[in-house]
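Feature request, filed as a ticket because there's no other form

It would be nice if the structure record came with a short human-readable summary line next to the tokens. Right now we just get the raw output. Example of a typical job, pasted below so the devs can see what we mean:
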Amino acid sequence: MVPALRSYLTSKAPFTEAELEQFEATATVKQLKRRQYLLRSGDVCPHMAFVVQGCLRLYRTDEEATEHILRFAIENWWITDAESFRTGLPAVGAIDALEDTQVLLWSKESFDRLKKEIPAFSALESQLAGRNLDAQVNRLYAAISRSAEERYHAFVQAFPDFYQRIPLRMIASYLGVSRETLSRIRKHPGA
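Raw output as currently delivered:
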């Protein structure tokens, strides 16, 4: 098994050796080069991905071809286009690599089977889904109640690893501000 996944899983729940081997047997390893897509908009999202190494982003593009970044994922994070993965409908979003990246992939059938056959994983997945929902609600609340400067400082404090690895234009997109606004905030902190 990929040591990073084994370490991640055993830090979250008391998995048996047989359960860990089941994770390994159902996973596919995929290497992505920087800027390579894991999922293109319009394709059905066939996999749940666990990031072993690297950095991915999930984003959507509007009618004016402006990218809106919904989330990032680095080592030990899960990522998918949840709506497409769950429903089998074409994805509105896209997922691509910001760095050379290694992921482990599970098909929907394999992922659902793991949840059904391994109670500890089902509980973990439910916990992660709940935390993801909480994070989305908190991000929405911040977007409507906090200034751009407050959102930027909260981002840097909450995700120092992201801040060091992700281009500022993408951080601006994630925060819902222009590059110019983000540059002004960074030049004049506290202003």
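Something like this underneath would help us a lot:
The two ends are 50 Å apart (CA to CA).
The chain is about 50% helix and 20% strand.
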